Amino acid sequence: MKNVPFSKPEDLMVPKSRMPNAAEWAALLFAMTFPTCVSFLNFIVFGSGMPEMQQIVYSSGKVLQFLFPLIWVLGFCGERFDWRFWRHCRSFTPEVKRGICEALIFGVLLITAAVGGYELLFKSFEVFQNAAGKINEQLDKIGIVGFWPYVMMTLLFSFPHAFLEEYYFRWFVFGRLRRKMTFAPAMLISSLSFSAHHLIVMGVYFGWDNPWAYFLAFSTGFGGAIWCWIYERSGSLLCIWIAHVLADIAVFWTGWLIISNS
Q1: Rounded Cα–Cα distance for residues 23 and 89 (Å)
Q2: Residue-wise pLDDT tens digits, 205-235
Q3: CA 183 to CA 64: how far, in whole Å?
Q4: Segments of 67-225 assigned E as strands
Q5: DSSP-assigned letter for residue 18
Q6: Which of 12, 44, 122, 161 falls between 20 and 30 A from 88, CA-CA?
Q7: What is the pTM of this model?
Q8: Model confidence at 171: pLDDT above 80
């Protein structure tokens, strides 16, 4: 089968949206802010002593979040997947092969930096010892107790959930922004959106007055920017899914070390 070069995410859908520009911006604004609103409700509004409401808000929020792009694009905008997209999914162009290599390099470096940095430099820091109790508290609320349940949660977030986040933030948010502006502002805006709901989580675990919360949220946004760059060059969700899987493994591996050290 002949490979079809395909490196521009804004070309994934045809024809162009039939919705007015103002409606497109409203949909993008909703998509960029909705995950942060769900995290705010989940971790702050219902975070103290209301585990049932937390689970309802989290699960229903995730369902709506991940359905919204398809409802908007296929339903309201009347677009469809271009035939080149389906052929591209079954082929490995030079751009995709390069993107996979970039994703693997990024992921391995991140795992090394996160796990190695914690073990060698930050293990004795009080901020991580304090965070361990809050992490365990959140895990207890959702019934994650012990090593193997933690491993199962890690696999869930590192594979299906990572793919859904890439489809949401890179394919939809970044891809739709990319139709309206050049790469740099689209990357910046989508990455800020990606880091915003992680900031809620970091603020709860590490404290809002703790610089580590903002550093880790910024690091998440920086990772999102790298994935936008890989996606722009490869046009492939597979590449950034691989990078996101490895990033989540780094996060959950380090998280287990933190709570094990408490």
Answers
A1: 30
A2: 999 999 999 999 999 999 999 999 999 998 8
A3: 27
A4: 80-81
A5: -
A6: 161
A7: 0.92
A8: yes
Q: Is the pLDDT of residue 15 over 80?
A: no
Could you state, in order of their start, the residue ranges of all structural domains in the chain? 9-260
Which pLDDT score is estimated for 142? 84
Q: Which two tokens stand for residue 224?
A: 């999102």
259, 123 in Cβ contact below 8 A? Answer: no
Name the residue with tokens 């390099």: 105
Query: How many whole angstroms separate alpha carbon 99 and alpha carbon 93?
Result: 10
Q: What is the DSSP string of 23-90?
A: HHHHHHHHHHHHHHHHHHIIIIISTTT-HHHHHHHHHHHHHHHHHHHHIIIIIIS--EE-HHHHHHHT
Instruction: Count Cβ atoms within 10 A of the Cβ of residue 239 and give its class: 0-12 exposed, 13-18 middle, 19 or more buried.
Output: buried
Residue (of 81, 82, 73) closest to 23 by Cα position: 73
| Region of residue 91 (phi > 0: left; psi between -120 and 50: alpha; otherwise: beta) | beta
Taking alpha carbons only, the member of 259, 241, 256 closest to residue 107 is 241
Dist CA 206 CA 84 (whole Å): 45
Distance in angstroms (rounded) separating the CA atoms of residues 261 and 252: 14
